[in-house]
Design brief:
The complex is a heterodimer of chains A (307) and B (269).
Chain A lengths: L5 E10 L4 E11 L2 E6 L6 H8 L7 E6 L2 E2 L3 H8 L2 E4 L11 H11 L5 H14 L15 H12 L6 E5 L7 H15 L3 E5 L3 H7 L2 E6 L2 E7 H6 L5 E6 L10 E7 L2 E7 L9 E2 L4 H9 L18
Chain B lengths: L12 H21 L2 H15 L13 H10 L4 H9 L5 H5 L2 H5 L5 H35 L3 H24 L3 H4 L1 H17 L19 H8 L5 H4 L6 H29 L3
Classes of the chains: A alpha/beta (307), B mainly alpha (269).
């Protein structure tokens, strides 16, 4: 199995007869391995993923997987056969067991041979550590277990392109770590597109990242390059607890004995006693979102190429 | 790392369509038949009507065909229950947040719609069949095994066509109306179209081959008691009974085919 060549060209999606432009002329090529997709609420991440999975048709522009464009119904079905999707709003049939649900999904994904289907369902149940509870109805599962059923169904057809939308929302820290490592294991020689609000999830697993803001690609490149966008602009600013907080973009706030320390983004020195610190990916992201970074245009990295 | 699937032979498109439809039907059946509401509502309506069988005295007849036909007539309320508990199936995937997941598979809307109609429909008809089998068991204990074949024939000819028609309507029309409005409409249609005879002076299909309670097959083949057809001065023939059944089955087929076409046009899958 080889990772697919996913090329997105001038992709635009509008709603309400063009009033809302959810995606506005996105062009990029996805590399092999884990690719993080970051962006604020309403930036267009879910819309982007729904188009890639063939769930939503674009208003204009093209998505091509190994040269097959998702234009006709038959072409979309061809691409869907090798794509896995874990949607943000994951629903399951509550009255089915995990094994029954996966068996049904395997059939819908075209695995019609009963023996092959049974083997495959057992494989994915093992992979997501649900074999022991596979015969229990999913309505009795915890949020984390349901998410694992979600990822299990996504990999049933051994997809070359795996798209996961906010997979760790609502999970406890341990479950989140487990989920993260599972996705990293799956990446291997396939492309995994991971959308999340949690920057740390992307830092820990994704060598490459795409940032979408208001339907545009605000950044695409290596994860380290996102951090360097804020280099030299990150400051620790300590003020008395009673003082008015700074109006600068603030990454975090730490209360202390001597006052409150703000981690802020500023292109100039925000105060005489401010201390410059090294930038993290989160700083780079906040800087980008507040348009402080030197350039907001697309910034191709070593593996992500702007078209 | 997961492995690439080794398929023994690539399935043909037709075989795939059929396999997916059967799978969808199987799982829809499983999910629907486990719902307590299906049993409570359907069996409740049967019990309500059969508590005082109509017309009075028919249970004392010695003619088995007449007997089972009039018992079948007493199942006339159960299609309302069948339709009511099927009506929420149409939007179920959307309500459960499964729409995107299912649309992301390479399977189109067809196998899922037909699977839902066949599987959920069969599951909802199951309580009717169980009640009928129970009744036949009771009648067999009273009158002997001769009731069984005629009882099964009466179920197939009098009760089942109406149930299939209502089932098909109940998994398709709610896409347009939503389940609540559909249930109200179904109740109104059933009373108007099958129980309000021509004596009320309201134009109605009751007493014509286009009603859904099986009066024509009951009258033509089982010598069952006629109500609305008699008011119209009609004694149904075998041909009219066939027409009545064919009409219901064709309407069911049309509802499903039209819905499949509309949903396929709307869906990207």
């Amino acid at each position: 199995m080889t990772a697919p060549n996913v090329t997105i060209t001038d992709l635009t999606v509008t709603f309400r007869r063009g009033e809302i432009r959810a995606l506005d002329g996105i062009s990029l090529r996805l590399p092999v391995g884990m690719v993080g997709l970051l962006g604020p609420n309403g930036a267009g991440k879910t819309t982007f993923m729904r188009v890639l999975t063939g769930v939503l048709l674009p208003t204009s522009g093209t998505v091509a997987v190994d040269g097959t464009e998702l234009t006709s119904r038959s072409q979309r079905r061809e691409v869907k056969a090798t794509t896995g999707y874990l949607p943000q709003e994951l629903g399951l049939y509550p009255d089915l067991t995990a094994r029954q649900f996966l068996d049904y999904m395997a059939l819908l994904k075209g695995i019609t041979d009963r023996r092959a289907r049974r083997v495959r369902v057992n494989e994915v149940l093992e992979l997501v550590s649900l074999s022991d509870v596979a015969n229990r109805k999913v309505k009795g599962y915890s949020g984390g277990m349901k998410r694992r059923v979600g990822i299990a169904q996504a990999i049933l057809n051994d997809p070359r392109l795996l798209i996961v939308d906010e997979p760790t929302v609502g999970l406890d820290p341990e479950e989140r770590l487990r989920f993260r490592s599972l996705l990293a294991r799956l990446a291997g020689d396939r492309t995994v597109l991971l959308s999340t609000h949690i920057v740390d999830d992307i830092v820990q697993t994704c060598p490459n990242v795409v940032v979408i803001e208001r339907g545009h690609v605000a950044f695409q490149g290596a994860i380290g390059d996102l951090a360097t966008r804020a280099e030299g602009m990150v400051w620790h600013l300590t003020q008395p607890a009673t003082a008015v907080p700074p109006t600068l973009p603030t990454v975090n706030v730490t209360p202390g004995m001597t006052g409150t320390t703000y981690r802020v983004i500023s292109s100039g020195t925000p105060a005489p006693d401010a201390e410059r610190v090294s930038a993290t990916v989160e700083d780079g992201y906040i800087a980008l979102m507040h348009a402080i970074a030197p350039e907001r245009a697309q910034h191709p990295g070593p593996n992500l190429r702007a078209i | 790392m997961t492995t690439v699937l080794q398929r023994t032979a690539p399935p043909t498109a037709a075989r795939t369509w059929w396999a997916k439809t059967v799978a969808a039907a199987r799982y829809e059946y499983l999910m629907q038949v486990r719902r307590p509401a299906v049993w409570v509502v359907v069996v409740g309506l049967i019990a309500l009507r059969c508590a005082s069988p109509f017309p009075p005295g028919f249970t004392s007849t010695t003619d088995n065909t007449f007997l089972v036909a009039d018992w079948a007539g007493n199942f006339m309320l159960c299609p309302i229950g069948v339709g009511a508990v099927l009506a929420d199936r149409a939007w179920r995937e959307s309500r459960l947040g499964l729409s995107d997941l299912l649309t992301s598979t390479p399977t189109g809307i067809g196998p899922r719609l037909w699977g839902k109609a066949i599987g959920a429909g069969a599951a909802t008809i199951t309580p009717v069949a169980v009640a009928w089998v129970g009744l036949l068991g009771y009648l067999t204990a009273q009158r002997g095994a001769g009731v069984i074949p005629v009882g099964l024939a009466a179920f197939a000819a009098i009760i089942l066509p109406g149930l299939i028609f209502i089932s098909a309507c109940s998994v398709t029309i709610p896409y347009l109306t939503g389940p609540v409005l559909y249930r109200l409409g179904l109740f109104g249609y059933w009373v108007w179209g099958n129980m309000v005879g021509p004596r009320f002076g309201i134009p109605t299909p009751a007493g014509t081959p286009f009603e859904a309670i099986g009066e024509y097959p009951a009258g033509a083949w089982f010598h069952g008691t006629l109500f609305d057809a008699r008011q119209r001065g009609i004694t149904p023939t075998g041909g009219e009974a066939v027409l009545s059944i064919a009409f219901l089955l064709l309407m069911a087929l049309a509802a499903l085919v039209i819905t499949q076409l509309v949903l396929t046009r709307r869906s990207p899958s």
